[in-house]
Write a structure and sequence with these properties.
Mean pLDDT: 79
Structural class: alpha+beta
Number of helices: 4
Keywords: Plasmid
Helix content: 10-25%
Strand content: 35-45%
Low-confidence stretches: 64-75, 146-151
Distance between the termini: 51 Å
Strand order of the largest sheet: 5-9-8-7-6
Length: about 150
């Protein structure tokens, strides 16, 4: 398999997304390439922070329709990838739920899971890096009033 060959391809009525593991000198990333529009490469921590968000977090950003769902998939996985670094380990499995292709993203160390379809993955691929920094702040990070200032 070459760097351009997808490990997983997910499709719905409007979107096709190719997903593959991409190794860089700084670690492994998950490359998400929608059929149209920009792609991205996410590291394990960026993927993990997606798993612990409250249901509907993408709708709050006004970036995706209400088909987003969270929880464990009861389907058998079609393919599995592992993306990890010293901070996080994430398993990704292509699953079929109600005859629709989905990507189950599981934070191995923290136990959080989220299931995203091709449209949601394409939405993630369009986000600026600051979007993922914001996700790291919630819900597990300290609230602004709880922050301790160091001098």
């Amino acid at each position: 398999m070459t760097r351009e060959d997808p490990d997983i391809v997910l499709s719905d009525d409007t979107t096709t997304v190719a997903i593959h593991e991409h190794t860089t000198p700084n670690g492994t990333r998950l490359a998400i390439r929608p059929e149209s529009g920009p792609g991205c490469r996410l590291d394990a921590l960026e993927l993990e922070c997606v798993t612990w968000q409250e249901e509907g977090f993408l709708q709050k950003e006004g970036t995706v329709d209400p088909t987003h769902s969270t929880g464990k998939a009861s389907a058998e996985p079609h393919a599995t990838l592992r993306i990890g670094n010293e901070y996080a380990l994430v398993e990704l499995r292509a699953v079929e739920i109600d005859t629709e292709d989905r990507l189950l993203i599981e934070s191995v160390k923290m136990g959080y899971t989220i299931v995203l379809g091709p449209s949601e993955l394409a939405t993630l691929a369009r986000q600026e890096p600051s979007f993922f920094s914001t996700l790291l702040e919630t819900p597990l990070g300290p609230e602004p009033d709880d922050l301790v200032e160091f001098h």
